[in-house]
Design brief:
GO biological process, one term: protein targeting to chloroplast
Distance between the termini: 51 Å
Structural class: alpha+beta
Helix content: 10-25%
CATH superfamily of the largest domain: Naphthalene 1,2-dioxygenase Alpha Subunit, Chain A, domain 1
Organism: Capsella rubella
Keywords: 2Fe-2S, Chloroplast, Iron, Iron-sulfur, Membrane, Metal-binding, Plastid, Transit peptide, Transmembrane, Transmembrane helix
Number of domains: 3
GO molecular function: 2 iron, 2 sulfur cluster binding; chlorophyllide a oxygenase activity; metal ion binding
Subcellular location: Plastid, Chloroplast
Radius of gyration: 28 Å
CATH class of the largest domain: Alpha Beta
Number of helices: 10
Largest sheet: 7 strands, antiparallel
Length: about 575
């Protein structure tokens, strides 16, 4: 009934990988013993079952007819049971193949997929930079597809609830803070502390508030300037799993931290962040460290593999392959790239690039970036903080177009990354390690794309393309809040909604620039009017000169606003 690439005997053509469709899953569950020999009658396939792909050459028999399937260009599937016991290994029948010699990472290196116990809710996830949490309003956030609301109560204590009112499911993040309580703006129900409802305006004076009128709460911790949330409501928070970063606790350690909301999946984001090979190409001349001509083979060494991540060193081949960079990935989504170096005075200094990634639903993610050093460059002290923030935005915009399209391809193809990627030993070691780690633990996530296994999201994906060409020019043009005609429409392809609304300092800077621009423009207009009215040539010159100066400074303020809010567009994409 289902062939490698098509259906025969008059059936409508259909891709072989369309096995995720509900009718086919039901068909397998009903007729698995008859239809496909390698499916046991005890195995039940679901839309989110992790799937391990391998070739299938066995003829498929249906209604006493034998149909010989054409060999597919991509491997067929093998099923990985969700019920596999923790720590057990599942045999992989994938055939080796493909050229590439010693250049590609060998697909034969691992013959078995190890499954370990994992529950995505029993983890700490980075929510927000503490300094950016609003004091006077609730903040709506998501972890995977679970919506939560974060706010500060009257005493400044951080509180986190499920983002829905128990009354009629309105979002509490759309509400307001009244005397330190979180009020739903639909009917005015108020909640405090451990989620207890303390006020219902529509309730008679003699009636008591029902005990069930409460909201689900989540444990939050403020650690090293970041707010973390424990997503399980059944298992008590595990303090040992709360990340601690040694370098950020060093005396005199200085960091620049930014927050970015991005239109592609967190796994693709992490791939990108652990890929040093793309920097010279994608970010050529973004700063003095990235140059296209410096693209070269890299040398990697994996020094640690655990059920919670991996670590290793990497360096440039031209520099002798010395592993001066120390990379570490820890579950669920924490990535570090650290370096130690000695200054001219012989004192050891430390650098850390810390990437705290939070999945916000398939096709979306939020990232907290923290670059820190014990010895900072004089340039960092001279240039304002907003300059470094806009430069960080530029870096992510340079990657955004192809990463969002990569997200779409993964969702469309519905096969593991080993059937799509050509991973090179000299550039993609960390990417392969990350996807193999997801093979181990992906069964405990809402969805995952592993090296050999996948499970698709239950919630339909949100695929948002980064615009290009004329569309990009319009959506990124001033005013930046959503582009032309949509002053307040959220748009993750726009820098204002990706960064500015999440950064208190940048928001203040833009408001200041906007205020000064308006004051100086009005002053220039007044001075020009006075210059027209006065008779003295000397005064005319003074007034017109002052008006010109005010106009120039107002224009500089406008350019500063545009620099902070407008998207970076590559030269070949500009009009």
């Amino acid at each position: 009934r289902i062939c490698g690439g098509t259906r025969s005997n008059g059936c409508t053509s259909k891709p072989y990988y369309d096995l995720f469709s509900r009718e086919v899953i039901d068909y397998f569950n009903k007729d698995s013993a008859m239809a496909v020999p390698f499916l046991s009658s005890s195995l039940q396939l679901t839309a989110t079952s992790p799937i391990l792909f391998t070739k299938l050459t066995t003829p498929i028999i249906h209604n006493q007819r034998t149909t010989t399937c054409t060999a597919p260009t991509k491997p067929r599937f093998h099923l990985l049971r969700r019920s596999a016991a923790p720590g057990t290994a599942v045999a992989d029948q994938t055939e080796g193949g493909g050229g590439g010699g010693e250049v590609l990472l060998n697909p034969e290196e691992e013959k078995r997929v190890e499954v370990v116990d994992y529950d995505w809710t029993e983890e700490w996830y980075p929510l927000y930079l503490t300094k950016n949490v609003p004091d006077d309003a609730p903040l709506g956030l998501t972890v995977y597809d679970r919506q939560i609301v974060l706010y500060k109560d009257g005493e400044g204590t951080l509180r986190c609830y499920e983002d829905r009112c128990p009354h009629r499911l309105a979002k509490l993040s759309e509400g307001q803070l009244i005397d330190g309580r979180l009020e739903c703006l639909y009917h005015g129900w108020q909640f405090e502390g451990d989620g207890k409802c303390v006020k219902i305006p529509q309730l008679p004076a003699s009636a008591k508030i029902p005990k069930v009128a409460c909201v689900k709460t989540y444990e939050v911790k403020d650690s090293q300037g970041v707010v973390w949330v424990w997503m399980s409501t059944k298992t008590p928070p595990n303090p040992e799993k709360l990340p601690w970063f040694e370098h950020f606790a060093r005396p005199g350690f200085f960091d620049i931290s930014t927050t970015h909301e991005l239109p592609y999946d967190h796994s693709i984001l992490l791939e990108n962040l652990m890929d040093p090979a793309h920097v010279p190409i994608s970010h050529d001349r973004t700063d003095f460290t990235a140059k296209r001509e410096d693209a070269q083979p890299l040398v990697f060494e994996v020094t640690e593999r655990t059920n919670r991540g991996f670590a290793g060193t990497w360096g440039r081949e031209k520099e002798g392959g010395k592993g001066s960079n120390l990379l570490r990935f820890d579950a669920p989504c924490v990535l570090q790239n650290n370096r130690e170096f000695e200054g001219k005075d012989g004192v050891k200094n430390y650098f850390s690039g810390l990437f705290l990634c939070r999945p916000t639903g398939q096709g979306k993610s939020m990232l907290i970036v923290r670059f820190g050093v014990t010895k900072r460059s004089p340039l960092v002290s001279v240039l304002p903080q907003w300059f470094w923030h806009q430069n960080a935005c530029k870096v992510f915009e340079q990657d955004m177009g192809f990463l969002s399209s990569q997200n779409e391809v993964l969702m469309k193809e519905k096969v593991p990354t080993k059937d799509l990627y050509l991973n090179l030993k000299s550039s993609d070691t960390w990417v392969a390690e990350y996807r193999k780690w997801m093979d181990k633990v992906g069964h405990g996530m809402p969805y995952h794309f592993g090296h050999r296994t996948i499970s698709l999201p239950k919630v339909p994906p949100v695929v948002e393309h980064a615009p290009a060409g004329l569309i990009a020019a319009l959506s990124a043009s001033y005013p930046a809040k959503g582009g032309i005609g949509t002053m307040h429409a959220p748009n993750l392809a726009n820098r204002y909604f990706r960064h500015i609304i999440h950064c208190r300092s940048c928001s203040k800077v833009i408001k200041s620039f906007e205020l000064w621009k308006n004051i100086l423009s009005a002053t220039a207009l007044v001075l020009t009017t006075l210059a027209i009215l006065v008779v003295s040539r000397q005064w005319k010159a003074v007034l017109l000169g002052s008006a010109a100066l005010c106009s120039a400074v107002a224009y500089a303020c406008l350019r500063a606003i545009e620099l902070n809010t407008n998207n970076f567009i590559r030269t070949h994409r500009r009009l």
